[in-house]
Amino acid sequence: MIAIQFGRPFAIQDRDIDIELPINLDANIADQEALCGLFNAQALMPDTNRPGDEYRVGYGYFTSVRFHLLSLISRFMLIIVIFILRFYYIFVNAKRDREAKASGLSEEEMERLGKIGGENDLTDIQNPYFRYSY
User: Fold this and answer.
1) pTM value?
2) What is the dihedral of CA 112, 115, 119, 120, to 10 degrees?
3) Which stretches does DSSP call E strand in 12-84?
């Protein structure tokens, strides 16, 4: 949100920035050699972890294991939800077919009434002739 408020791109992570941090110096330095010495000192500084390094591959064993475990759990839950919805749709279709046959409608008539209900902007719950496809 802050990036949007300041008009900056919000897709750039801290770990994607590979430029050096600015040197903390007095703006009134007139000595060219002292300025070059500060730049050289910064260039010789050891690389330290920057914000976002914890997301690098191999940064932390437990962090990556926890991420992969949560990813597997969420995928497993998604598969369960897909199967539950599939069997629910099969159940609803069978129930609607029984109700339509009890009223004496043919399959062509049920399909025609389902299309008319769809053209009249009825939802799948409001249209008793709607059939889920799977």
Assistant:
1) 0.48
2) 70
3) none
pLDDT in tens, 9-62: 666 666 677 776 666 666 666 777 777 776 676 666 656 655 555 555 555 555
Separation CA 124–CA 126 (nearest Å): 6
Residue corresponding to tokens 């009223």: 103
Q: Does residue 116 contact residue 130 with C-beta atoms inside 8 Å?
A: no
Report the C-alpha gap between 16 and 45 in whole angstroms: 20
CB < 8 Å & 24+ apart, contacts of 21-28: none
* 127 closest CA partner among 84, 93, 90: 93
Please list, in sequence order, all residues whose beta carbon lies within 8 angstroms of the beta carbon of residue 54, skipping any fewer than 6 positions away: 60, 63
Q: How far apart are CA 14 and CA 34, in angstroms?
A: 30
